[in-house]
Amino acid sequence: MDVLKGDLLKSINDIPRTIFSEDHVLFRQAMEDFVLSEVVPNHEQWEKNKMVSKEFWLSMGNNGFLAPQIPQAYGGMGITDFRFNAIISELLNRAGCSGPGIGVPVHSDIVVPYIIDYANENIKKKWLPKMASGEVVGAIAMSEPGAGSDLQGIKTTAEDKGDYYLVNGSKTFITNGFIAEGYVVAVKTDPKARSRGISLLFMDAGMKGFSKGKPFQKVGMHAQDTCELFFDQVKVPKMNLLGKEGEGFKYMMDNLPQERIIVAQCGISAAEGALESTIGYIKEREAFGKPISHMQTIRHKIAELSTEVQMGRVFMDRCLELHAEGALSNIAASQAKYAMTDLQCRVIDECVQLHGGYGYIWEYYIARAYADARAQRIYAGSNEIMKELISRPIWKNRKQ
Ligand SMILES: Cc1cc2nc3c(=O)[nH]c(=O)nc-3n(C[C@H](O)[C@H](O)[C@H](O)COP(=O)(O)OP(=O)(O)OC[C@H]3O[C@@H](n4cnc5c(N)ncnc54)[C@H](O)[C@@H]3O)c2cc1C
User: Fold this and answer.
1) Is-catalytic flag, 363?
2) 268 CA to middle of ligand 1, Å?
């Protein structure tokens, strides 16, 4: 495997990051040490295994790096400042470790919030301590073979059978799908209705009739166990309903901005790591008797990319700050998701070019970053859907 070039966890950005306190800086240092000692050296093996190890999840939990917002009463740390969560994703993605880089935020920032906000006390007591410790990994199952962008069109049904729901159907492209044991699953409790027919259930992998497909062979993110889920006459107790019946779509719409902001954070962080790595590479690589970093066009390219990344980071930090204060609009979250993931793909594409042929060789960090980046524009609401959400209010109150 390519030696990681440059100092991936530092940044050439020089606009001071004012969103962090001393506590954040200390937490960041601890996470940096963890990423360098326990994540980077193991990632290549996890790519071969098609998933990160269970030991990784347990170690993350042991160090307090999983869902820090889980209340102390349920075995967590009760740290509700989202900036701590954002630091965890930032460092995993800067280091180019896309397996945990996307799996951890799905667990901590997407799945756990549904359980904290909508699960009944029995579910919280049983599952949250294990999700804080890493004994149980979480996944969110919304997409189906026939419905991704159009979530209201899902077909998995949950029939009311008195004290349980009978669930039939399937889900696809589920991040952490294979290693997970706890799932937030979107189902139709009223198949005739569109959004008002959707409910959320907490399901566990041990339920009879619940099965998983093998992890997909994906273009990138090889350490991510993305897979299908199948439900064949699964009896799900009524107490596993999250919130109220028929409110699932609303809950998803309420929680999606956090999903978008964290995917945006992963995107800009991956772009920062790729740029640092590329600067390290061009300082060493020689052509025509000198390092290629001495060529003016190449220096200008780095000037352009670093400017774009700096602009992205400033925007992203402001969004994180607003989100931590509960003041980020849905539109800004969609803008961040679209802009940061587009930026990520653009910057990494240029970084591949700066590596020449080596940029296309899998052993190289930048080649993997290139493959890993592509899905970012597709999931968490595709970038086309983001533009739709951004554009709606612009035209709503105008005559032309
Ligand atoms: C690696 C990976 C991980 C994923 N993880 C998860 C997960 O953990 N949980 C989960 O539930 N899902 C997950 N997904 C699924 C993902 O959210 C969907 O793939 C995504 O929402 C797009 O849905 P689709 O694939 O059905 O594409 P489609 O909805 O069929 O879209 C196809 C194309 O049409 C465009 N399009 C659709 N509607 C519109 C419109 N109204 N206007 C303009 N363009 C439109 C889309 O942008 C896209 O370009 C994951 C996907 C991938 C690739």
Assistant:
1) no
2) 21
